[in-house]
Design goal:
Layout (H helix, E strand, L loop, with lengths): L26 E2 L2 H10 L1 H6 L2 H13 L16 H8 L10 E9 L7 E9 L4 H4 L5 E7 L8 H14 L1
Antiparallel strand pairs: 1-4, 2-3, 3-4
Amino acid sequence: MCTTTCLTFTGPYAELNHCPRSQKMFDTFPVGPQLQALWRHPDQAKKMQWCQEYTNNIIDKLKTTDGIPEVYEDVLHGKQYLDVCQSGKIKDGDAVLTFLIDGAQLYKYKQSDCWIYIWVVFNHVPDNQYKKKYVLPGGIIPGPKKPKNLDSFISPGLHHLCAI
């Protein structure tokens, strides 16, 4: 990673060996092992099936309402999500995640930024989705400045997600 947070040497920049400036590191947390840990205990594995069961109920109800949901309660009622489920791209047992990223000022009187990205597991009932246990860290991008090429920083996390 470039010390001025220009970019990191992943994705389209993987061929680069160095930045004209110096380098420093950033941390990523592979999502695969974190998801495996959520499926490890039988009680937890049963809780992880809520999304699958709820989605199947929505799809069954759509057959009786001409494909129009009676109510939109959350992302699981969205057309794009339901289309990929019905096409088989999201299968029973798959994890359903959302990606969130934001910057944080670490010190009250200092212009230093740190960017953090997380994965939220949607396989649980909505009341549990944003509990600390189900919000998985993805990566921490140190400052002192805002990343100039954010795609290069999130590329390792997305690459790992595609591999599982």
